[in-house]
Design a protein that fits this description.
The complex is a heterodimer of chains A (about 400) and B (about 70). By secondary structure, chain A is of the alpha+beta class. Chain A contains twelve helices and eight strands. Chain A has helices at about 5-35, 40-45, 60-70, 100-105, 135-145, 150-175, 190-205, 205-220, 225-240, 255-265, 325-335, 340-390; strands at about 75-85, 90-95, 110-115, 120-125, 270-275, 285-295, 305-310, 315-320. Chain B is built from two helices and no strands. Classes of the chains: A alpha+beta (about 400), B mainly alpha (about 70). At the A-B interface, helix 6, helix 7, helix 8 and helix 12 of A face helix 1 and helix 2 of B.
Chain lengths: ~400, ~70
């Protein structure tokens, strides 16, 4: 293939992948801006206040927290608990039943309690009944367009096209810049030329960041199928030996506090921060599933499940996570930009804004080019007709 | 195709910026000390500043002095 023909093909790849994904990518970039700062925005919209207690106040027993939850909602089951690391709060997620939760995960709702005093700070209606907040809408537009898995897969595909558009854009950058110094922006001539240069400049400076955020975005959109795969393979194999055992009712469960301490002893150096109750569709029918995390920036994103037998309260196993879920866990911070304090978030937002300019200018260039081409064709036709008219005898 | 010096001219700055970006992302993720986070902030700020600097609005130069269209 000649260089010119190969270039033409790369141009076609860049044009078509960009055209298909640009509008969705613009939506993703715009909604991504508030999402980068979701912690700050949440704290600002709904400030949490806590009783002032000495720093060494011990935490309440989880048995007491579970009892309070059952007392408040006597006809419901506890689905899971989550202990916050930043604030002294624990979330208790509840459902009418596990069967109802399996049919529709949105039936769950939570209670928020003070980790130390077990005082109930907040109770909510189910996600299905609760009005959507501004941030809920941003998140849905960013991740699934309000239609769960199909939306996730669709936006994942758009992110993949974005990655192909970046790669083909890099291939085109070379020949475009052959005779130009880095950073040249030709002003004072055609507007299209100025925006072409800005598109090339801003696209190339954000290249590595956009590739990382694009690829980790694809990965994040695959989280549902990846977790499904894990449950269908490793988890199924792990639970096969328990097949046929009865699933204990919540009243018959061994102490959750004792089970948590058993799990914690099995993973020294890690912190257990969530509890998935036996029977929860996202856990095991026969075990408490505890999730433990490490204590560094990276290892705090790598979660390890620990299973404790729901009949005996004894340790069953510390589960080794498969490579694809580890890859997913590493992609999260690299997509969210939430691992280097506020300065990193601000940089994330700036890079996101520059990407919006790259997307917008790309769209403008395509429209302007079509217009020029249409004008050129019209001009050609006009001269052709004029020539034909001149040849005709009067 | 392009000679190696031409290639170097086109790709040297983009390569440096890409390497700095990846170093910044990794150092903030893997480094525990705040110094490593700061390395991440600084290296990630470089591509942003370079982009903003060259893209900053300027008075248009006369057409004759502008570079040649490739």
């Amino acid at each position: 293939m000649t260089a010119a023909r190969s270039l033409k093909r790369w141009y076609a790849v860049h044009k078509w992948t960009s055209l298909i994904c640009t509008l969705f990518l613009l939506l993703i970039c715009v909604t991504g801006l508030p999402l980068v700062f979701h912690e700050e925005i949440d704290h600002w919209l709904e400030p949490h206040t806590y009783a002032a207690l000495p720093a060494d106040t011990p935490n309440a027993s989880f048995d007491r927290i579970a009892a309070i939850a059952h007392q408040r909602y006597p006809h419901e089951v506890i689905a899971s608990m989550y202990v916050d690391d930043d604030e002294p709060q624990v979330y208790v997620w509840m459902a009418p039943s596990f069967a109802a939760m399996k049919a529709d995960p949105d039936v769950i709702h939570f209670m928020r309690l003070d980790t130390r005093t077990a005082e109930v700070l907040e109770t909510t209606a189910s996600a299905a009944q609760r009005p959507k907040t501004f941030m809920d809408v941003m998140l849905a537009l960013h991740t699934d367009l309000f239609v769960d898995l199909p939306g996730e897969l669709f936006l994942g595909l758009m992110a993949l096209l974005f990655v192909v558009a970046i790669v083909s854009g890099v291939v085109l950058y070379g020949p475009f810049m052959k005779k130009l110094d880095f950073g040249t922006v030709r002003r004072g001539r055609a507007n299209r030329l100025k925006w072409l240069d800005l598109h090339n400049l801003l696209g190339i400076v954000t290249l590595a960041w956009a590739l990382v955020v694009g690829l980790t975005g694809v990965m994040n959109e695959l989280s549902t199928p990846l977790f499904g795969l894990w449950q269908q393979t490793d988890v199924k194999r792990l639970l096969a030996s328990y097949e046929g055992q009865s699933v204990p009712s919540q009243e018959a469960l061994p102490s959750v506090q004792a089970a948590l301490e058993t799990a914690q002893r099995a993973v020294p150096g890690m912190t257990v921060n969530s509890i998935v109750y036996p029977g929860n569709p996202f856990g095991s029918p026969y075990h408490y599933m505890f999730w433990a995390k490490g204590d560094t920036t990276l290892t705090s994103r790598l979660l390890n499940p620990v299973l404790v037998n729901a009949h005996t309260g004894e340790l069953s196993s510390v589960v080794k996570m498969p490579w694809y879920l580890r890859a997913l866990e590493v992609s999260r911070p690299l997509h969210f930009g939430d691992y280097g304090g506020l300065p990193l978030k601000i940089l994330w937002a700036l890079l996101d804004l520059i990407t919006i300019v790259v997307l917008g200018s790309g769209l403008y260039l395509w429209i302007a080019r079509r217009k020029t081409q249409a004008e050129r064709v019209a001009h050609l036709l006009a001269t052709h007709e004029a020539a034909a008219g001149a040849r005709q005898p009067a | 195709m392009s000679t190696s010096s031409q290639r170097r001219k086109v790709w040297s700055v983009p390569t440096v910026l890409a390497v700095l970006t990846l170093l910044g992302l990794a150092s903030a993720l893997l480094g525990e000390h705040w110094g490593w986070k700061a390395v991440g902030w600084i290296t990630l700020a470089v591509p942003v500043l370079v982009g903003v600097w060259f893209a900053r609005p300027r008075r248009s130069r006369p057409a004759a002095k502008a570079a040649v269209h490739p």
